[in-house]
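Lab meeting notes turned into a lecture example. A postdoc, R.K., suggested we walk through two folding results consecutively so the class can see how the record format repeats. The first protein's sequence and structure tokens come next.
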Amino acid sequence: MSDLKHGNIFEAFSATAAMYPDNTAVEYLGTKYSYRKLLGLVESFAGGLARFGIKKTDRIMMYIPNSVQLVLAWLSAQRLGAIIIPISPIYTVPDLKYLANDTESKIIICSDRNFGYVKQIIPDSSIQKVIVTNVVDMLPLWKKAFGFLADKVPKGKIEKSDTVLPLNSVFSSVSSPAPKPELDETDIAEIIYTGGTTKHPKGVPISHGLILESSDEQLGVRDPLFPKNKDIIMGGAPLFHIAGQTCSLSTVVIGGGTLILHPKVNLDAMFDSIQRNRATSLIGVPALYRMILDHDRTDQYDLSSLKYCFSAADVLPQEIGARWERKFHKQIYQGYGATETCGGVCMAPTDRPLPALTMGKLLPSKEVLITELDGVDPLPLGTPGELLVHSKRMVSAYCNKPDETARAFVTINGKLFYRTGDIVKSDEEGFFYFVDRTVDVIKSKGYRISASEVEAVLQEHPSVVESCVVGIPDKKVGERIKAFVVLKSDVKGISGNDLIKWCRKRLIEYKVPNYIEFRDMLPKSKVGKLLRREIRSEERKRLET
């Protein structure tokens, strides 16, 4: 999208609602909200926020799970030109306090189950209002009553006061709408926090134009399969994550399609929604696809309407992709992106056969270089190197982190590039392939070994659920390879030696793990990414004792 049709997100949503007023914008727990109804709710909620003094550039934290409330609050903040800080509902007090202070947020919208955490940070933050919601707040009365009577509604205790208000009390009854701010594509729409190698997450400020551009490109990948306004998306990715926004929420903003939401992952509920609504797209992380394949009742549902299954946020193990194709006779499409690039850099096209393991082709808005680590000169085609990304509307700095900004962003020939820290390669046909993350390359006996390659081999073993491979410092060879493995719950009798033998048949000798350690679970980030750095840190501490 070379020229944005609309200068900001709310204008885009308003135009979509005007074009498809009777289409279902959101289905949440079986209740449908048309574009006409959602637009009215957004205007009313934005009016309520305006009464609290919220205006352009004010910061609003959103600490709620996938829900129609999150969509409503997100669009209402855009209506006022406020800056949104969407955060994971599993964050606890330390993360919450850090983000509140780093962004100087005035309002936080939270679930009642998280109110206890919010209450603890209020005295030491700039938060002036807390808006609390329960997962069923916007459902019909009969559904609420049934849910509470059947004890199916999770709830938490709140304390009402001038500072703490229930979500339903915010809706404005005033007929005149809130004043519209002057907004253009360069204004910041939200700040998404992303993890990394530092102690605290980094705030990535994303403009209205960048979100609209990225959303248009990532929805557009599906155009050969169905029109955008006919897309019915089962939103399995969290909306506080950039992939959930550009690949799912985007249909409400610019697509005219339907977004199906559930507050937590419940596979039977998801399957029922897919079957009942004849969903066409499924957006999720690799772990979701594994869960679906391993679920006992998957075959009891008709999932044949799905035409576009997309895996985001991490590398999809080849074994999962192969099992999915055997079971459903459909491909899981992959892409590559980062919060700093507003999601997709590469996306797998849907109008042609794909080579194995590709993460797709470069999207039109992006320009890339593949260089030596920390380098600036392009490497020969096909040579793995660090991926650097440039775009016209790109993020240029982290919030309040000049040192991190200096390390992550570099100017080359007058253009600003983001250093992804990921090793990739490309081929003559323009397809890109993920090789490894630079911090996850193991150096042993003079060789550079891809941790993810070894993990992929381990995960092909029928008894393995997850694996994590790291380098353990060794004076003789630099690093030795250690694998941490989670086995399926019903598996017994598998030893570390069995897995090492499995690897020897599939890997060059210097890539075979030297050690195997079994665990019940592996550390993950707030968005489900494997945290190798935590395991590396544990091992180094163990060596020091």
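The second example is placed directly after the first for contrast:
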Amino acid sequence: MAAVQAASLDLKRVTPVPATEPIPTMDFFRPRVLSQPVLNPSGTHIAAVITDGEDKHDLLVYGLADRMIETVGGSADKDIYSVHWLNDSRLMFNLSSRKLYGIGLLAADVGDLSSAYPLLQYAAASLVSIPLKNRLQPLVWRRRDVEIDKDHGVSVINSGITTGKIVDLQSGGNTWSAAMDARDNNAKHIIDTFPLPPSKGVTYHYGTDKAGELAYCYTSDKGNRTMFRLVDKQWVKCPVDLEQIDIVGAGNEPGQLCVLGPRQEGKPRALQLMDAATGKLGDVVLQDQTYDFNGGLYRNPATGDVLGAIFNRNIPQVFWFNEEYQALQKILDGMFPGLVVRIIDSDTKHKIFLVATRSAKQPAIYSWVDLEQRKSGLFKNSAPWIDPTRMQEMKMIKFKTRDGRRLDAYLTFPASASKENPPPLVVLAHGGPWARDTWGFNGEVQFLASHGYAVMQPNYRGSTGYCGMFPEEDEWNFIKMHNDVTDATKALIASGLVDKNRVGIMGGSFGGYLAISGVAHEPELYRCAVTEAGVFDWALHVQSKKYDQYDNSSFGRLMKKLGDPKKDAEKFAAMSPINFVDKIRVPVFVAGGKEDQTVEIQQSKRLVSALNKYNVPYEKLFIGGEAHGMAYLKDQVELYDRIITFLDKNLMPKK
């Protein structure tokens, strides 16, 4: 099936199919034409990641004045990602192989992109920041260095040394051929390296001050998180309880942080200020009446000062602390009526802006706005093959949990739905669990709706924005999360808006766990389940993380929050649906990537064995070369074609 489908992918078409034709599966899942657009400091050029062919990701630079376009890409299975401007003419970006492995950090100049040169090779390098005072010396975290095979901490990289250029990036260049070359080249660019934090644990994050200078480090030892601040190039432990405080980013004053404050009974968690040296909390900056703050900060590109906060409540929100930006937002909202409008970047003088507009029926469209010239123009529609008039609106509903809380779920109906013709329902549970569903375009949801299914996306305790509603221990109570999804499903069925006899449940990662928990514990509620890359045996999952506990904080965190499977065997058995497969009475579809390092494929294989043992009908799709979630379009198309066939077969009207 995969080979037949791959041959039929019409990737040259960038317009919607005629309204008389069904929308192809691939249109809902195609990589965006363009993503991650960023302006250079003076606002003369936009850089972005673009899609070339089926799944290839290249670099594009566009001149706003001359409209000149320059592109470059890696060879074969190599992709460019994470693009940043070092200055007005020089860019830095990462190169990956097979969508699984980071193989280098490169720099290139506008006008000569094909002569990109490596800054770091085979070092699992990730950008920490580009300091505002010295943009050509970015701070890079060498998580896994080729020479010492361990975390090397943060280094200052000199991006001005252009020796060792790759003559032809498209062919890969022999610069990438040997580890010895990598060590030699890395040494040329590393100016200075900061000390590692004085912790026996694993470093999981670094933070900076508002100007992009290294300032903070976060470690985890046996699940206990510690924060350090940098004082005279030495790490000093901060008296901050990271179980109660979540760091959002630097504040405007030295040593000041914006944080998600501690839980207060009856109040959502607020965005407020904190002194990093003392841990003392300051003024509340922003507090919603219903939702915890869950978002990020928008900064002045010239100074790093916080100008606004972008976050989610029932729909995406932005709050500007700056009056000029408040006025600008009103102008932009008027320019793009009916759409969510977000400023995503600007030049340092606040004259040229990059704006994204979107809705539940429209993927992101990027435009530029020149305030000085009072002009604006379309930069790129990220998914021009999507016809918004054929997409379905997304609505929000409230449901009550069994302990009396009110949570949100997003509901999308197919065009054919009516009171007289209630549609079948797919309950689509999100992963994480510390993530959330939001209002906006969702290709998976629109795909299901196009095939006649209503789709409900329930948020549950643990979903970001809702944690403050519940006791702290509920943030790791997976059984209660399952109960929330069950309560949402039953509430929607009781409304009469969907066919109560045709309900399925579906999800990936933690959502895949919830899908199997649903059919195991609610055998009369669902008629089938779809799970991708799910966890079904939590004891096995904790054990699988033990082997890299010195490089990854997951094992210690799971042990601290969930407990020791050997000591809490009864608890782990109760929350692991692998132990309740004998209760499943409906068909199950199991999918996963064979190279998954987040949730080992062994979880899905064990589920299949248990389904076999108890004669539960199932289908499976395990794909080589894929990790946690399907990265290749051909594999996504095969997966969702198989899923829709499975749903159609098992959610047919009862006679």
